[in-house]
Amino acid sequence: MTLTYEDRCVITDLIAMHGHLCDSGELDRFDEVFTADVIYDVTDFGQEILIGVAACADAGRALGELNPVGHHVTNIVLSEQADGRVHARSKGIGINADGTSGSVTYEDTIVRGDQGWRISHRKMLARRVPLGG
Q1: Are 105 and 89 a contacting pair, CB within 8 Å?
Q2: Long-range interactions of 30-39: CB distance < 8 A, separation 24+
Q3: Mean pLDDT in the chain?
């Protein structure tokens, strides 16, 4: 499979949409970004792996006021896989209500299904030290 320019644009928008949905509190729309059975790995933050869009939305609601007020994604790099999946690596910047910020790396597996491109697996890695630690 060869990713078209249109595929790349749609996937980039998909990755960016996650932050918009979080920041606006539209967590019930996560099915527009993730597969129904998404695996969302937040173990690097001491949390359990989340499975499914409902678990992801529930986790966001449970975080409540501790959620960042701004999720920003940048440096998106897409790599085609032989099996038709796409690996995406991107950087996330979270801005907190008190003005502090944090940085993460997103490692995503993206698949094309009946609903179009969706993230089926996301691993979130905290950036805690410079130069990869």
Answers
A1: yes
A2: 30/56, 30/57, 31/115, 33/118, 33/119, 34/118, 34/119, 34/120, 34/122, 35/111, 35/113, 35/118, 35/119, 35/120, 37/120, 38/118, 38/119, 38/120, 38/121, 38/122, 39/120, 39/121, 39/122
A3: 96
- Among 47, 52, 69, 54, smallest CA distance to 124 is for 47
pLDDT digits (tens, 9 = 90+) for 85-101: 999 999 999 999 999 99
pTM: 0.94
Count how many domains the chain has.
1
Residue 122 structural domain:
5-132
CATH number of the domain at 114, please: 3.10.450.50
Rounded (10°) CA dihedral 110, 85, 103, 31? 10
- Percent of the chain past pLDDT 90, that is, above it, reads 95
Under a CB-based contact definition with an 8 Å cutoff, are residues 91 and 104 in contact?
Answer: yes
